[in-house]
Amino acid sequence: MPKILLAEDEEVLRMLVVDTLEDEGYSIDEASDGEEAYNLIKQNTYDLILLDYMMPVYTGLELIEMIREDQNSTKIMMLSAKSQSSDQQKVLDAGANYFMSKPFSPIQLVERIEEILGESE
């Protein structure tokens, strides 16, 4: 069973994504801020990390840089309402593998995750 970390400070969105992904059979850890996410990343191995761009303590962008400094090659997808091409490029340049603009439907997210994790197999 693929293991995913979701770091999202908006509780309602986090609950929706967790419920959707658990219904699809994924094992999900969740964090409500960047520090909590980083601590989980140091303690666990994930197949995919989903990061919100704008979070307390560490932003998604700062987290990507910290993860990559640790030589962690886990796939990372940024979820963000900051969807201008310059923001997307900044995220990809920092080391994210994928970018998904908010708002998104749960079905879109599941399809994208299936594509990403399918590439790993």
From TrEMBL:
The lineage of its organism: Bacteria, Bacillati, Bacillota, Bacilli, Bacillales. The modification 4-aspartylphosphate is found at D52. Keywords: DNA-binding, Phosphoprotein, Transcription, Transcription regulation, Two-component regulatory system. Coiled coil: none annotated. This is Response regulator. The keyword Transcription regulation applies. Residues 3-117 form the Response regulatory domain. GO terms for biological process: phosphorelay signal transduction system. One of its GO terms (molecular function) is DNA binding. SMART domains: REC. InterPro entries: Bact_response_regulator (IPR050595), CheY-like_superfamily (IPR011006), Sig_transdc_resp-reg_receiver (IPR001789). It comes from Metabacillus litoralis. The keyword Signal does not apply.
